[in-house]
Design a protein that fits this description.
mainly alpha
Length: 129
């Protein structure tokens, strides 16, 4: 193949890949990123208005340990605030009650831990004795 033919094939393949992955328009990707950032800022401002400082600290701790649960609680508080169900700032005790009611509604996870005891015989910790 000559170089012009190879370049034409590369351009076609690049256009095909860009079409498969959302167009590849840098302006569209930038606009999407700006919208996501604006939504995050709006969510943070709603949470700052709806939660007391202690409740906000507890929610951040929950987000560190269980990110999906923290995001779910954040979204729930934002919806409550937008519907006008939150009249005063949510205190830490109220947040705990909200979390407990949420835990009762959620199904328990059935994760189990299995120990493979056959590998215990291969440990070299006993060699030091």
């Amino acid at each position: 193949m000559s170089d012009p033919e190879l370049e034409k094939i590369r351009q076609q393949r690049l256009a095909q890949l860009q079409a498969q992955h959302g167009g590849g328009d840098p302006n569209q990707a930038k606009a999407q990123e700006e919208r996501m950032q604006a939504m995050e800022e709006a969510k943070h401002s709603i949470l700052a208005q709806a939660l007391s400082q202690d409740a906000r600290a507890r929610l951040n701790t929950i987000k560190l340990s269980k990110p999906e649960k923290g995001a779910m609680v954040e979204n729930m508080i934002c919806r409550m605030a937008q519907m006008g169900q939150v009249n005063t700032k949510i205190s830490e005790k109220e947040l705990i009650q909200l979390l407990e009611s949420l835990n009762q509604q959620m199904p328990k996870s059935t994760s189990t831990v299995k120990f493979d005891r056959r590998r215990a015989a291969l440990d070299s910790d006993d060699d030091d004795l």
